[in-house]
Amino acid sequence: MKTGNFYGIGLGPGDPELLTLKALRTIQRADCIFIPRSDTKEDSLALEIVTGYIQGKTVREQIYPMTKDKSVLNAAWVRAAKEIHTEVAAGHEVVYLTLGDPMTFSTYIYLLRHLGELLPSDTIHTIPGITSYNAAASAANYPLLTGDEKMAVIPVPANTENLRPILEMFDTVVMMKVAKKLDEIIQLLEEMNLLENALFASYIGQKNAYLTADILPLKGTGKGYMSVLIVRRGRKEDSLQK
Ligand SMILES: C[S@@+](CC[C@H](N)C(=O)[O-])C[C@H]1O[C@@H](n2cnc3c(N)ncnc32)[C@H](O)[C@@H]1O
């Protein structure tokens, strides 16, 4: 029997209009759709994004534990990879949906490692998605890079003082996984006189999306969850180009 194919698909940050045509067409052609969901969440945003396009298709949720225990996580990825392998080996076109871009800070990468041991490489395909920070920058008409500028994309470090040299070295710094560190970052930006250069964006592409360049009032609001902070040193020159 002919082997099927596996497609890891990036859905973008939440707005179904930010799906690529390639993602959409691949989802519409699929025999079986795998959707990851954490064991602490009732709803799957990935499912919501594609809900208009998957009527009549087999949808299988894979539950992933919200834990940092590597052996528990590894067992979940091995299980997920085996389930996917069974479908592909049966000749099916299988898709696996991920938020944002699959290759950017995504647990999809761990799944991919396990799938690589089970499936021939020419049956494994990844379709890129728009990252949260790309969507945020465009939504705010906030340039990321021009000319020979350099950009760093980083998860916020446990010690936010470690951000200082990164903010000094790069023209643009995209901070992801902001969460509880928002107040400390604001403090640092204030000290470095960079508050006016920043863009804050949370839940981009979703119903409760929030975008602001007025950073100081965010202090103490606890709004850091599902957010990115972008700081661009040349921001003031961008603003002059009216
Ligand atoms: C595990 S990473 C996933 C990144 C994702 N693969 C991407 O391409 O954007 C999770 C982090 O991405 C950022 N993020 C994901 N979705 C977001 C959204 N809709 N709005 C703002 N930030 C988001 C937040 O910093 C969050 O802590």
Key words describing this protein structure:
single chain; 242 residues; alpha/beta; Cobalt-precorrin-4 Transmethylase, domain 1; Methyltransferase, Cobalt-precorrin-4 Transmethylase, Domain 2; 5-stranded parallel β-sheet; 5-stranded mixed β-sheet; 8 helices; 32% helix; binds S-adenosylmethionine
* CATH secondary-structure class of the largest domain: Alpha Beta
- Helicity range: 25-40%
Give the strand order of the largest sheet, numbering strands 1, 2, ... along the chain. Answer: 3-2-4-1-5
Oligomeric nature of the chains:
single chain
Average pLDDT for all residues: 94
Cα end-to-end separation: 62 Å
Count of helical regions: 8
Radius of gyration: 20 Å
Would you tell me the structural class of the helices and strands? alpha/beta
- CATH architectural designation of the largest domain: 3-Layer(aba) Sandwich
CATH homologous superfamily assignment of the largest domain: Tetrapyrrole methylase, N-terminal domain
- Given as residue ranges, the uncertain stretches (5+ residues, pLDDT < 50) are none
What is the general shape? elongated
How many domains would you count in the coordinates? 2
Strand content: 15-25%
SSE string, helices as H and strands as E: EHEHEHEHEHEHEHEEEH
Topology of helices and strands:
Blueprint: E1 5-10, H1 21-29, E2 32-38, H2 45-50, E3 58-64, H3 70-89, E4 93-98, H4 108-118, E5 124-127, H5 132-139, E6 151-155, H6 163-169, E7 172-176, H7 182-191, E8 198-202, E9 210-212, E10 227-232, H8 235-240
Parallel strand pairs: 1-4, 1-5, 2-3, 2-4, 6-7
Antiparallel strand pairs: 7-10, 8-9, 8-10
The structure holds S-adenosylmethionine.
